[in-house]
Each structure stands twice: as structure tokens, then as C-alpha cells.
Write a structure and sequence with these properties.
about 220 residues; alpha/beta; single chain; seven-stranded mixed sheet; Rossmann fold; 6 helices
Length: about 220
């Protein structure tokens, strides 16, 4: 995939997400979650549970910043302090995050995860395999581990597992989100820990694979 094709791919993702997120009402809906708030918490809090020390946290695909807001609250309940950072494809959606996280507005950036260069390294970085075109996952993960994380940092690779098939989503990786840890292992990355998010019905709706930074 050449540079022009990559640009078009990210443009297509932005054009698909922007209208849906901006037209949503509830803050978790503006983060791409269509269910009720209690299910949002059940399927997002496991990411926060992977934070075991105070530090900086970059959420790639931060949307309106609601997850980062919740992350700070959930980690604070355990006596940890997290400084939030966010990256989003859409300047309009990132503007919502800057309003929500007004104290940290300077920490919200606009760009795509493939071409963006971080201004610093972080203790934690959250991302998804779906954030780059198929076939570029290994290079993307390697770049995050080498260039985005502090030496003792952790990469939190998240997968959101659909309850049912959605034919409008043509990326075959969508239906394979429960296999994120296996995929990472097959790509050659040492998965240190796997955490699952389970909703009230017992559905495993989230998987978080934790990979330590390359030293």
C-alpha cells in the first residue's frame, strides 16, 4: 500500500466515524459505543485495570475523551494518578475531547496512528489492531513498542468483540477480535497478560492484551 492509498484508507475511516460520533448524544456514544452506560463500564474498565502504577497514558483513537475521563476516575479509586493523552483522526472529534478534558487540552492531538510522531514517550499506550490496514499490524505494533513507550511501559492492545456479525463492516478482522492475543503472539510479540471485559449477560465484549515495551 503506497502513501496515497494509506491516506485514502485513513480518510475513509474518518469519514465513516465522524458523522456517527458527532451526532451522538451520550458521552459513551460519542466514543463509539451504542449500548447502555453500565455495559460501557463493564467493557472499558478492564483496560483501566491493566494500569498498575501512576504515569502517562496515551489513548490512540481517543474520540471525545470519555474513556480517558473514566480512566482517571477508575485509577484514582486505586490511589493512582494518570496523566491523559489522546490521539484522534478527526479534528472535530478531538475538539470534543479538548472540551471534556479542558485541563489537559494540550495533550489531545490530531493525526493518524501510522504517520504521527509522538512528542514524548508514555508509560501506557492503548490501541487496536484495526487502526491500520490489514497486513501492517506487525510494523505498527513494533513502532509503538520502540517509539511510543518508555522502557518500562506497556502496550495495551484492545479488541472489542461484537455480539453478532455486522455485514456492513467488511474488514474480516472485526469478527476475530477475541483472537487478538493469539494474533499478536503469531506476529511475534510477547503477550504478558490478557484481561477480559464481560458484560452482565456473560458476553466477553472486550479483550486487552498487555505487551511490555522493547528495551
Amino acid at each position: 500500500m503506497d502513501e496515497q492509498q494509506l491516506k485514502a484508507w485513513f480518510q475513509g475511516i474518518r469519514d465513516m466515524l465522524e458523522p456517527a460520533y458527532l451526532s451522538a448524544v451520550e458521552p459513551w456514544q460519542q466514543s463509539g459505543f451504542s449500548g447502555p452506560e453500565d455495559r460501557w463500564k463493564a467493557l472499558r474498565k478492564p483496560i483501566a485495570d491493566c494500569v498498575d502504577k501512576s504515569g502517562t497514558f496515551l489513548d490512540i483513537g481517543c474520540a471525545n475523551g470519555y474513556f480517558l475521563e473514566c480512566l482517571m476516575r477508575w485509577t484514582d479509586e486505586r490511589g493512582l494518578q494518570v496523566e491523559p493523552f489522546g490521539l484522534d483522526l478527526s479534528d472535530k472529534i478531538a475538539a470534543l475531547a479538548r472540551i471534556r478534558l479542558s485541563k489537559y487540552a494540550r495533550n489531545i492531538y490530531v493525526g493518524n496512528c501510522w504517520g504521527w510522531s509522538p512528542p514524548k514517550r508514555f508509560d501506557y499506550v492503548r490501541t487496536e489492531l484495526l487502526y491500520v490496514p490489514q497486513g501492517l499490524e506487525r510494523l505498527y505494533m513494533s513502532r509503538l513498542l520502540h517509539d511510543f513507550l518508555l522502557p518500562a511501559g506497556k502496550l495495551l492492545v484492545t479488541g472489542y468483540i461484537p455480539r453478532r456479525q455486522r455485514p456492513e463492516l467488511t474488514d474480516p478482522r472485526v469478527s476475530q477480535q477475541d483472537r487478538v492475543p493469539e494474533t499478536l503472539t503469531n506476529l511475534g510479540f510477547p503477550v504478558q497478560k490478557v484481561v477480559w471485559g464481560v458484560d452482565a449477560s456473560g458476553h466477553k465484549g472486550t479483550v486487552v492484551a498487555v505487551i511490555p515495551a522493547f528495551v
